[in-house]
Please model this.
Amino acid sequence: MPVSLQVRIEKVFSLGPSTNVHKVNYGPEGQPKGSPAEISKTMMNNQTFDDWTWVYKVNVASYYFTSAAFLPLLCAAKDNGFSEVGSILNISSISGITKGSQNGQFSYNASKAGTISLTEQLANDLKHLEVRVNTLAPGYL
Amino acid sequence: MASQTDLSAASLFNVKGWVAVVTGGGSGLGLVTANALAANGVKVYVTGRRAEKLKDAEKQDPSGGSIIALQMDVTDKESIQAGVDAISKKEKFVNFLVNNAGVTSGTYRESLQSGAFH
Model:
């Protein structure tokens, strides 16, 4: 067990006997551990529906609407002395590619996978306008 | 085929005179992106919800590039359109849009800290 995790768990237990926590809530690869009931509780309490939709709203839906709104200005570049129209870069994340939840970041990772899908769809649907749409998946910063 | 000079790195990566928009450009990766563009002669509009944070990012670079703050909420269609309208009044085109604004989710660890397991 990593030292930082051990310290964290000790800190939680130091909160007192009324603190109802599982002995180990997630394993070294971020997967929840314990009995099926404990895993269920961990996952159910991890986030709310609003947490999920907020992450999706910012990381995916906002990219769609912002891209759509800027299309005329992007296409206008070619009418103003440039050899190409403007292009779009959508910042996704390595978390949009990874198979695990990275300690329960289900909604974030799903949203960043969504960013990648959105990018592919925009690139496909805007190719007749010559607008290139790419995505970048940064790792840990 | 492109001429030999067109294939030089300086030409291939030339962005001087571009206009760019970086959402969430007031901090983090967006701010670094904006600075990298501005350092190479790009006029960059950085957008975000926090006007003060955006103002701190503003600068004029010796390369001719600059960073200009523009308050815009990317989760609000009207705010996005207002941002486009504001830029349209000053620019005829945009060469590069970076959709960078993002939020993270909680992890099990953070749930533990916030006491969500009680």
